[in-house]
Design a protein that fits this description.
The protein has 153 residues and is mainly alpha-helical. Helix content is 54%, strand content 4%. It contains five helices and two strands. The protein has a two-stranded antiparallel sheet with strand order 1-2. α2 packs antiparallel against α5 (119-151) and α3 (54-62) packs across α4. It starts with 15 loop residues before the first helix and ends with a helix.
Length: 153
């Protein structure tokens, strides 16, 4: 039996699933427009990730934007990091994002850091603004869609 495919997100928004479900019922156009806006915001986030070390630069090039109704970035679980030892990008990412040096097998990573070195620090800094831009877009879309629907009744 294959393991389920799941993606975790960096931010949780109460009521988001209900909002997305409502938008699905409003038609294909609002969903397509929201996916386009979310893709642009996710691409903007990736452009602002600081790559201050060669491993961070390698990690950033491994990320991809997923076309979804919310801004989403990630990397395929099976993607290799392209480093000696054959590490997967996920292993490489978490080691360079949160550090190591706690065990003999993690000495190749920077010192342990719970708030992250580049990805999560950028998400914490830029995330609220990106979320605000996303909600502004969605609010405008809902207003336009609702007004069109109300006018046709």
């Amino acid at each position: 039996m294959a393991a389920p495919k799941t993606r975790s997100t960096g931010m949780h928004v109460e009521g988001l699933n209900r909002l997305l479900s409502t938008m699905n019922k409003m038609g294909k156009q609002i969903t397509d427009d929201t996916r386009d806006a979310s893709t642009r915001l996710a691409e903007d986030f990736l452009r602002h990730l600081p790559a201050s070390t060669p491993p961070q630069a390698r990690i950033i090039t491994g990320f991809k934007v997923y076309r979804d109704k919310i801004p989403k970035v990630g990397f395929p679980a099976s993607r290799t990091a392209g480093v000696s030892g054959g590490a997967r990008l996920g292993e490489f990412f978490f080691g360079h994002e949160f550090g190591g040096q706690q065990k003999p097998t993690t000495q190749q990573f920077p010192p342990k850091r719970s708030d992250g070195y580049f990805f999560y620090r950028t998400l914490n800094q830029r995330g609220p603004k990106l979320a605000e831009q996303w909600f502004d877009f969605v609010t405008d879309q809902l207003e336009d869609t609702w007004n069109r629907g109300a006018a046709s009744v």
